[in-house]
Amino acid sequence: MPDTERQPIGLHLAWLLAVAIAGSFVTAMILATGDLTTYWPLYIIPIVIASLGYYVPGAIVTAALSSAIVVLLSYGAGYDTPPTSALVLGMAAYAISGMVIGVQTQRYRRQRERLEQDATRDPLTGACRADYFDARIHEEVRRSSRYNQNFTLSLVGVSEFDEFQRLYGRVKGDLLLERLTEVLHLTVRSTDIVGRLDSALFAVIMPSTTAEEAQAVAERVVSAIGATEFEGDALEPVVHCNAQVVSATYPDDAAEADALMAAARDRLGLSEPRSEGDPGAEPRLGASNLADIPS
Asked: Which domains are seen in the chain, by residue range?
């Protein structure tokens, strides 16, 4: 159940509790009335709930448990028991219905996740889109202000990306950006937020990070990108590229999201936001090394 494994533990407990309550209610009705014939079809309720929360596996497990309870109750003294064939066919039909509901629910949730991801993620690199990243900066400002914490915004610019793309083509340029995003995700923390602001301009939000800590991260990023081998062409199969990393820290450098982004852009030599897809949008940055990173 890969999709449900990502759900919070509280949501898991809520689904399990709902299934348990529904199954217990049906069982209590049968025990109180002694009428198995009338009330056993109500076991479809916990089966449906399980299929909504845990898809096909949930439907199968709940149908099996319900069937076992029905079999045990069918031997109870004085119970009005339906024919065995009706019980078998009925529980089989319920299990199949639950599996169908589970399949459809899983498809719906996966489609919804894809739509949400398309709205917030860059289709090429998988990093956050510029507008969504901007919203996350404002959110981080509010959070850090509330808890009186620092956070750092870092910009990562690829040196001479437009020249690389001119020499090796658009496809190799896209491959470089994809690989670069992977390196960024591997270098920063899992809690950091990586976004793509421009064709070759990336940004990272690092919660609860001071300027000194961000400096160490910047050095790791520059070193990792410089050591990464990118695909070139037949004459030069392996290509290395340089990157420049600058940072601005809240609230030391700015106390508002827009001002923090402006401070970081100024340090990178980009005074105005660029629009992705604009042929003149690529930042032409000189090759940088660790000494070039502003503190």
From this structure: 2-120 (no CATH), 130-292 (3.30.70.270)
